[in-house]
Design a protein that fits this description.
- The chain has ten helices and nine strands.
- The chain has about 325 residues and is an alpha+beta fold.
- A five-stranded antiparallel beta sheet has the order 1-2-3-4-5.
- A hairpin with a 6-residue loop joins strand 2 and strand 3.
- Helix 6 packs antiparallel against helix 7 and helix 8 runs antiparallel to helix 10.
- It is globular.
Length: about 325
């Protein structure tokens, strides 16, 4: 999870859950967050030295909704603690009324990998991990909320100056239809390379952690696959985004057999990134991808939407 220079940011959320006698000896801001700030907190006590991670909401919108978001993530982490196939941090408490609202958790091994080298192998690992997430079978009482769509026809921001207005018009029209029937699954809902930690390289690469569970939902597997596919198209090019659904099926996952239904979920996700995926690009650039300029991402997104329509419409 890369890091920047040490700072003395808010750590009260961590102090409140440490055992008596444990003391904070270092704070390090972690890169790559958008909705929240992440800090590594180094702790020393009778049992030795260890580290925890503190998620803190600081943006006004997320601070307003912190109670629901943080409690939801805490509940999901506790649920997944019993799942061998989904590596997650252990929740150490939740302080939604803190200044700022925070959730401390254990530090996972590994780091986010967004570079081009090894991207194909990592995509296969992502597909296997996502299938394992979808295999989680919570009780009815433990099910997360039903998914929420992140865009709608009236909210899509078509890129200014595009020469393919017909492509965008077709895409917007397709998501204006009623959602297709689906078999509901346990969804991460924000699964993409920026929320997955890896250890090792090449043939030894492995997923070591999945983070950021505040959007966990109940809905179609196609929607999670769509979100990761869009991210891969933006990070590594359209072919990478188009391959991911096939990699997911090869890993044992199941998607809608109806092309029109699959297209609906893919476009519903992709159009939420319009016009230039800047919300995702800011943390990606912080994590070592300065090449992901707004103009490049705008072009990749448009090419991806056009290819989805060509293949599935």
């Amino acid at each position: 999870m890369g890091s920047v220079a040490r700072d003395g940011g808010p750590v009260g959320g961590a102090r409140g859950v440490l055992p008596p006698g444990e003391r904070i000896v270092g704070v390090e801001r972690l890169r790559g967050g958008w909705t929240s700030e992440m800090r590594r907190i180094d702790v020393r006590g009778a049992s030795g030295a260890y580290a925890v991670v503190l998620r803190s909401f600081v943006k006004e919108f997320y601070v307003r909704h912190a109670a629901g978001l943080l409690r939801r993530e805490a509940e999901v982490l506790r649920l997944l603690a019993a799942e061998d196939g989904v590596p997650v941090a252990r929740c150490l408490g939740v302080r939604p009324e803190g200044e700022p609202p925070s959730l401390p958790m254990t530090l996972l091994p590994g780091s986010v990998r967004l570079e081009e080298e090894g991207a194909g192998k990592r995509a296969e690992l992502l597909a296997r991990q996502l299938r394992a997430i979808h295999e989680v079978r919570p009780t009815v009482a433990d099910r997360p909320r039903v998914y929420e769509a992140w865009t709608a026809p009236a909210r899509v921001r078509v890129p200014e100056g595009t020469r393919r207005t017909a492509v965008w018009a077709r895409a917007v029209e397709r998501i204006g239809a009623a959602p297709p029937p689906y078999e509901a699954r346990f969804l991460h809902r924000d699964f993409h390379p920026g929320n997955v930690l890896f250890t090792g390289t090449g043939a030894r690469a492995a997923v070591s952690g999945v983070v950021d569970w505040v959007e966990t939902s109940w809905g179609p597997a196609d929607l999670d696959v769509a979100h990761c596919s869009t991210a891969l198209a933006l990070l590594h090019g359209v072919p990478a985004g188009m391959r991911f659904a096939e990699q997911y099926v090869a890993a044992g996952g199941e998607l809608s057999p109806e092309p029109a239904a699959h297209l609906y979920w893919r476009l519903l996700d992709a159009l939420a990134f319009a016009p230039d995926a800047e919300k995702a690009a800011v943390p990606w650039r912080e994590l070592g991808r300065p090449d992901l300029t707004p103009s490049l991402l705008r072009a990749r997104l448009e090419d991806y939407v056009a290819e989805l329509l060509r293949r599935y419409d």
